[in-house]
Amino acid sequence: MAYQPELIGGHVALDLLNTISWRLDPSRTIDRIATPEALAIWCAAVGLSGSDGQLERVVAVREVVYGAVLPIAREMKAGDLAELQRPLVGALERATPTGARPLDWVGADLVDELVMAAGRLVEREDLGRLRECQDSGCGWLFLDRSKNGSRRWCSSGDCGNRARARRHYQRLHPGTGVLS
Ligand SMILES: [Zn+2]
Residues 36-65: what's their mean pLDDT? Predict the structure, then answer.
């Protein structure tokens, strides 16, 4: 089946990070944009273009963004923003201003767009709402836009369902190990 990106991050920079599934469980980790075709599908899904020949750079910048953002999600402490700063400065140098409001910049290419999206994430979003899915292997990140800020799972139909099934199983079979 063709790749169908799940855009649950609430921000394109987070959806970029979430192109890796099961990041925290190396036995299951899958890079969903491992081919140029998959990258093109993901780009179309988030409204970006120009992915030809960019796969390696996108993958590299994805890890830079992850290094900057993960510590914020885990402990509200900025990660390696210096690593992000360098590509961000370059992207802004090459960018052109949008002519209409909201005023912003248009990146020179796909990677610049992604880098600037990460910049917007750390500058403009309410990072108190940045969360990491509570499934131990998932590793997906999202902005919790729920009213009471209580979202715990990337997707309640996915990781949330598994957690519910586990609790249910343990209630029925007390004293048994954890279902995985
Ligand atoms: Zn999850």
Answer: 97
Ligand 1 centroid from CA 96, angstroms: 36
Which three-class secondary structure state does DSSP give residue 126?
A: coil
d(CA 39, CA 126): 28
Q: What's the CATH number for 12-148? A: 1.10.3300.10
Ligand 1 centroid, distance to 89 Cα (angstroms): 32
**DSSP output for 32-77:** TT-SHHHHHHHHHHHT----TT-HHHHHHHHHHHHHHHHHHHHHS-
Contact 149, 129 (CB under 8 A): yes
Check residue 177 and give its pLDDT.
Answer: 58
Taking the C-alpha atoms of residue 41 and residue 23, their distance in angstroms, rounded to an integer, is 20
∠ CA 79-58-146, nearest 5°, is 55
pLDDT, tens digit (0-9, with 9 covering 90-100), for 66-105: 999 999 999 878 888 999 999 999 999 999 999 888 888 9
CA of 5 to the centre of ligand 1 (A): 14
What's the CA-to-centroid distance between 73 and ligand 1, angstroms?
A: 14
